[in-house]
Automatic annotation (TrEMBL), chain A:
<protein>
    <submittedName>
        <fullName>Dynein regulatory complex protein 8</fullName>
    </submittedName>
</protein>
<feature type="domain" description="EF-hand">
    <location>
        <begin position="8"/>
        <end position="43"/>
    </location>
</feature>
<feature type="domain" description="EF-hand">
    <location>
        <begin position="85"/>
        <end position="120"/>
    </location>
</feature>
<dbReference type="InterPro" id="IPR011992">
    <property type="entry name" value="EF-hand-dom_pair"/>
</dbReference>
<dbReference type="Pfam" id="PF13499">
    <property type="entry name" value="EF-hand_7"/>
</dbReference>
<dbReference type="InterPro" id="IPR002048">
    <property type="entry name" value="EF_hand_dom"/>
</dbReference>
<dbReference type="GO" id="GO:0005509">
    <property type="term" value="F:calcium ion binding"/>
</dbReference>
UniProtKB/TrEMBL annotation, chain B:
<feature type="domain" description="EF-hand">
    <location>
        <begin position="643"/>
        <end position="678"/>
    </location>
</feature>
<comment type="similarity">
    <text>Belongs to the PPP phosphatase family.</text>
</comment>
<keyword id="KW-0106">Calcium</keyword>
<feature type="domain" description="EF-hand">
    <location>
        <begin position="559"/>
        <end position="594"/>
    </location>
</feature>
<dbReference type="InterPro" id="IPR029052">
    <property type="entry name" value="Metallo-depent_PP-like"/>
</dbReference>
<dbReference type="InterPro" id="IPR011992">
    <property type="entry name" value="EF-hand-dom_pair"/>
</dbReference>
<dbReference type="Pfam" id="PF08321">
    <property type="entry name" value="PPP5"/>
</dbReference>
<dbReference type="Pfam" id="PF00149">
    <property type="entry name" value="Metallophos"/>
</dbReference>
<dbReference type="InterPro" id="IPR051134">
    <property type="entry name" value="PPP_phosphatase"/>
</dbReference>
Length: 156, 721
């Protein structure tokens, strides 16, 4: 039974890995590894990611080999190392930033926190986030709606 | 004492306040971290979906191209095997009559536009010749306002273009020494993109040279307009506008990918004539451009046999279609060879290769004198920069003077004997196919391009070798859609440029063009032509393209319905109607052969799974995305029809020799017989008759191809409800 679970996890990892393996030689660009790990339903911090990359990118070639990645990632998935963020926690987080309890965030408010606290967003990421998430009509972020819209089943 | 107490209280509340501040800051950091993590994960998931979408489009596109070449080879097979008297041969022989090359005087007659009246009711632009900058600008403006150019002017402009193209060398030599040069990739009938490039970069002129790297036509709606604009500028600035031939500048490819249909739709009376002229014009397009002896620009790429000397020398116009070698009679000798075998032979890596080592790059390129001779319309010494043998030079001049020698030669090679010239022709042909159809690959080596079905894949070692041998520093090519409009590979020595934005679907990719100065360093300008996609957020645009990719994929799944069911049943011996996810993924790939990450796509394709099992019968039922518009009792013919929709339409168009859009009842039957022998399946004559009768022919015994195909276009029912 346990073996079947492991082999299933392996297949899942391989499938995602292959989507990024442009040269079909069981390697991916190290810059894609974050996307791969996130796509496998994990929610690591940037620091977690760096540690993980350090662990699998042994020779600093800029490429990650499936052979190195597979065992490490299998362990991550089986141990649920980077579990999804529960919606209520996320809601609380937005409420912390929404000091006046308006139910929405101004782009300026959000930009201040995202680019000055935590694992800082680059200007590019910030612009993208605002275009993607701000309400079309009045240009603010209704975070409650966004959470339910964007958080979908971690199985995918 | 009292004072002190107050002070202590003050101090305490201060500390409290500090603590509170610190705590709330800490909470903010934690909150920020959480949101950042959540958002980054969301973006990564989008990226994953975008990647899959891209793979779907690309796989389906390349599978289509492969079909096209298979079909073409199939006709070749028939030509080689059927006796001349058989009706099939008569039906299709005209596409192989490569000797559309008739004497120039006959062509001149063909170009004759004088009998065509421009009536007062015509509101489009009027052209005067010789073309001027003003004239072409007027044309651009008119096309911007969706006007159409009168057939008389079209023919006149094409005639002028033909005369000019004939004196251009196979490889155009240009310099970026004193002015920046602009290089554009595939346009594929996307007029919006061309207009946007002109808007951002300026119109072509002697101060603003351009190279257009092929694939001007097909797929998009405005191939005609793009051609007329490009040809117009070529006529005004023959020294500063350079057109390379692409794999779509080929009348056989046009039968399938829409250009033939576009021309016939826009020019109902003269369309046939226009197509015939274009066939000839395409064969006269130069094959490559070289900037300052250092940068090679070709549409597809190179192979390990690419030899610029040979390419500079070939009689390019002999290759009216690059899809088939000029002659294959020696294959017909061995009747037992299958199509696939022959496929492999004609473009296999081992067979038929002749490795011509060029003495040096200098033998075909001018030496490093910086003032290249300017091309002139009336200067027959164009080719003098290419040091050929006297004989070849003579031959060329004779041709320019109107004594076409190649006519006799081609006639000779029509005989069944295996001659020396035949080998040369096959070699030459391969040189051209490789340049027009090849794609780079990351691995070393050179292998036939089985994905596209034409040309080859070449590796970084081949790039090094060919560029090194010719003392070149960069290869610029197009031919492949890239998400950002351009992409480097092979250690930055190969650069792909693609100028049609939103190629697969609105928002699927950006277009780009290159600007290059005397330092020969490429600079990129990216753009996206559609207004709709600029307004879309990232999520909406991913969602948009994704759903159209999935729709396309579901169509593919649908047409392979029976194959899928029987393949699934192998893993379902007890007929429970369910199989494991693992089997589902591997089987689907085996049947469709698209190289897609099916497990990743599963949630979007299969609505529900139970304990890792897929209810495939339910799934197949859900895939029934279309409703036949006609009542046909025979389901197998229907499926064949859907699966071979594009092939069938191509055969119809080939058979419709006079491009009338109508074929006779008899031809309709013959088409199906051809298709069924191609597929090696039996389609009964009765089934075909039923099919024919289910369409209401207006008793005149002919069938409208467009209406017939339209009736069978796959329509997504869910999209309409």
């Amino acid at each position: 039974m346990a073996e079947a679970v492991v082999s299933d996890v392996h297949k899942k990892i391989r499938a995602v890995f292959e989507a990024f393996d442009n040269e079909s030689n069981n390697t991916v660009d190290v810059r894609e590894i974050g996307t791969i790990i996130y796509s496998l339903g994990c929610f690591p911090t940037q620091a977690d990611l760096h540690d993980l990359i350090a662990e699998v990118e042994k020779d600093h070639t800029g490429y990650i080999y499936l052979d190195n990645f597979l065992p490490v990632m299998t362990k991550v998935l089986l141990e649920h190392k980077f579990p999804p963020i529960p919606e209520d926690l996320l809601l609380q987080a937005f409420e912390v930033l929404d000091k006046e309890k308006k139910g929405y965030l101004e782009p300026e408010e959000l930009t201040k926190y995202m680019t000055q606290e935590g694992e800082l967003f680059s200007q590019e990421e910030m612009d993208e986030m605002l275009t993607a998430l701000a309400d079309r009509d009045n240009n603010v972020l209704y975070y409650k709606d966004l959470i339910s819209q964007l958080t979908i089943d971690p199985d995918m | 004492m009292n004072v002190l107490v107050v002070k202590e209280e003050d101090y305490l509340s201060m500390v409290m306040a500090e603590c509170y501040l610190l705590l709330s800051r800490f909470a903010a950091i934690r909150a920020a971290l959480l949101i950042q993590r959540w958002y980054r994960q969301y973006v990564a998931r989008l990226e994953m979906r975008r990647r899959c979408t891209w793979n779907i489009f690309q796989s389906i596109e390349y599978a289509g191209e492969q079909d096209q070449i298979k079909l073409y080879n199939f006709f070749g097979f028939l030509m080689d095997h059927f006796t001349p008297a058989s009706s099939e041969r008569n039906l299709i022989s005209h596409i192989f009559r490569k000797n559309e090359i008739c004497r120039d005087t006959e062509w001149e007659r063909y170009f004759c536009y004088k009998s065509i009246e421009v009536t007062d009711s015509y509101t489009g632009p009027h052209l005067t010749f010789p073309m001027t900058f003003c004239g072409v600008s007027k044309l651009v403006e008119a096309f911007k306002h969706k006007q159409q150019l009168h057939a008389r002017y079209v023919l006149q402009l094409l005639g002028e273009t033909w005369r000019l193209l004939r004196i251009l060398p196979n490889i155009s030599q240009v310099t970026a020494c004193n002015k920046q040069i602009t290089i554009c990739g595939d346009l594929h009938g996307h007029l919006e993109d061309l207009l946007l490039i002109f808007y951002k970069n300026g119109l072509p002129s002697s101060e603003k040279p351009y190279v257009f790297n092929g694939d001007f036509v097909d797929r998009g709606k405005n191939s005609v307009e793009i051609l007329l604009i490009l040809f117009g500028f070529l006529l005004v600035y023959p020294n500063d506008v350079h057109l390379n031939r692409g794999n779509h500048e080929d009348h056989i490819v046009n039968l399938r990918y829409g250009f033939t249909k576009e021309v016939l739709g826009k020019y109902r009376v003269h369309g046939k004539k226009i197509l015939k002229l274009l066939q000839n014009i395409f064969s006269w397009l130069p094959l490559a451009t070289v900037i300052d002896n250092k940068v090679l620009i070709v549409h597809g790429g190179i192979s390990d046999t690419t030899d610029l000397d040979t390419i500079a020398r070939v009689d390019r116009h002999k290759y009216v279609s690059a899809l088939r070698p000029p002659k294959l009679t020696h294959d017909a000798v061995n009747g037992s060879k299958t199509m696939n075998n022959r496929n492999r032979e004609t473009r296999g890596p081992v067979d038929g290769r002749r490795r011509v080592c060029s003495l040096s790059y200098q033998s075909w390129a001018p030496d490093h004198s910086h003032d290249l001779p300017r091309r002139s319309l009336h200067n027959a010494s164009v080719s003098s920069q290419l040091k050929w043998s006297v004989e070849e030079e003579l031959k060329r001049r004779r041709r320019l003077a109107g004594f076409d020698q190649s006519y006799g030669e081609l006639k000779k090679s029509d005989s069944d004997s295996f001659t020396e010239s035949e080998t040369t022709e096959t070699d030459e042909w391969k040189q051209i196919v490789d340049v027009l159809w090849s794609d780079p690959m990351p691995q070393n080596g050179c292998i036939p391009n089985e994905v596209r079905g034409g040309g080859c894949y070449w590796g970084p070692d081949v790039t090094e070798e060919v560029l090194g041998r010719n003392n070149l520093q960069l290869l610029i090519r197009s031919h492949e859609c890239k998400q950002d409009g351009y992409e480097f590979c092979h250690n930055r020595r190969v650069l792909t440029i693609f100028s049609a934005s939103n190629y697969y679907e609105v928002g699927s990719n950006r277009g780009a063009y290159i600007r290059m100065g005397p330092d020969l360093v490429p600079h990129f300008i990216q753009y996206q032509a559609s207004t709709t996609c600029r307004e879309l957020t990232l999520r909406q645009s991913v969602g948009w393209t994704e759903s159209s990719a999935l729709r396309a994929l579901k169509e593919q799944l649908f047409v392979h319905k029976s194959d899928l069911i029987s393949a699934f049943q192998e893993f379902d011996p007890n007929n429970k109607g369910v199989i494991s996810l693992r089997h589902w993924a591997s089987t689907t790939e085996r049947v469709l052969n698209l190289g897609l990450p099916w497990r990743v796509l599963r949630p979007q394709l299969v609505s529900s799974t139970q304990c890792g099992m897929v209810d495939y019968q339910q799934w197949i039922r859900e895939l029934s995305i279309t409703e036949p518009k006609l009542e046909i009792s025979d389901n197998s013919i229907l499926e064949t029809m859907y699966k071979n929709h594009a092939n069938l339409e191509t055969i119809f168009r080939i058979i419709d020799t006079d491009h009338s859009g109508l074929i006779s009842f008899k031809e309709f039957h013959q088409t199906w017989e051809l298709l069924s022998s191609h597929l090696k399946t039996e389609i009964s004559a009765k089934a075909i008759t039923d099919l024919a009768q289910s369409i209401d022919f207006n008793k005149d015994g002919s069938i409208d191809i467009n209406e017939f195909m339209e009736a069978f276009r796959l329509v997504d029912i869910s999209a309409h409800t």
